[in-house]
Amino acid sequence: xxxxxxxxxxxxxxxxENLNEERYIHxxxxxxxxxxxxVIFGQNVDKAYLAGLLHDCAKCFSNEKLLQIIKQNLKIExxxxxxxxxxxxxxxxxxxxxxxxxxxxxxxxxxxxHTLGKLDMTxxxxxxxxxxxxxxxxxxxxxREKIEQYLNEENGLDKAMLKCYKETIKSLVKRDLKIxxxxxxxxxxxxxxxH
Length: 195
Fold this sequence. Notes:
Layout: H1 8-18, H2 21-40, H3 45-54, H4 63-73, H5 88-98, H6 105-112, H7 123-134, H8 141-148, H9 156-174, H10 181-194
Helix pairs in contact: 2-3, 2-7, 3-6, 4-5, 5-6, 6-7, 7-9, 9-10
């Protein structure tokens, strides 16, 4: 495979061993959707596919293992510790680099920020972020359609991102969970850029 010395079959085999079945199915869907979005938005298809394959590689690690890897090897934002569901993103980027020998910074950054996002994301980072949210294998059809409807419009990528953030914020409020300041900042910046 391009961008890693590890063969695709080996990556898939590792993922099958380290992810549960639903997460593996989601991963394949994300890789395929990232590839599809890369074609639409003029990004590198091979890089998008690999980022999609590895974006959740640490998702099924225990919270203890994730925190241990973070503590020993990574610097992360304070707000990323607010919700255990986001811990896997920086660790997945770390695993992509160490286990799978990916050294392409764009791929690593897209994996790193695929859950929370960040300010001033690149087109490549946005397509991996969105692919994770709208892949057809495990994501709700109604939710996907709310976001996908914007992709063919002018500024469609940012409109789809904004819709994602609106849905995320609504969901967090509904479940009485904290909202990371970064999420609010990204939402506000997307609102400003589109209005």
